[in-house]
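Listing 4. Sequential folding, example run.
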Amino acid sequence: KGYQVLGPGFDSTHRAPTLALTLEGRHPDEVGKILAANNIFCWTGHFYALRATEVMGLQSKGGVIRLGISIYTQNEEIDQTLAALEQASR
């Protein structure tokens, strides 16, 4: 609740396993610290897409939260990440 995932839809053939998201009312760095406290690595900022974050009005808000999912990511890690994201949204 309160999160917006940016980029193509999850059913798109052009979707990469990297998520860029924002949480309404929270700075990306705040969310990143909560994820880190739960042993989840993420990045925050503009990720070399400075102009894109500026055009979307996100640069002045700290950019986005970026999470990468790979073939070796375990279901338990996804569950842990979702729980930490839920914690951050409170």
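-- end of first protein; second protein begins --
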Amino acid sequence: MPIREVELMHGAVLVKLCRNDNPVTLRLIETQDDLRSAYWINDSVVLYMKHSVAPQKRKRGERERWQFTFTENHIADLAELVQGSTVYLVLICGQPGFEGTMEIALLEPGEWQTCLDLSGSGQQWLAVEAEPRRGLRVYGSCSGDNRVGV
């Protein structure tokens, strides 16, 4: 049975989540396509995951940038999930061929909701920048110059 890219990328997050001393229950929340995946964790919080394996390369030793597109369907999913649930957004920053450094940006509800407009229409985006020795910075189409450090 072949393993798809989305399964590898989400699996990396789920392994990190499950590698602790506390038991974790995990349930997939069905969406209309594989690119929109959400999971219940301990039946109390939701992880909504997106991945990218196409960073915009900068000069060696400088920052990399991954962009994540949120269609109207993605925004509708998030708007529905936040009704009565705590939703964390997980942006998985991969590399072509899975070679090189990969990152995971975990955004708390208050962080990602400043970067996306759940009442808006049309396509939106988030970007993750990784700069050596500075960590990750996330910003989006609705955040202006405000960048969230994760």
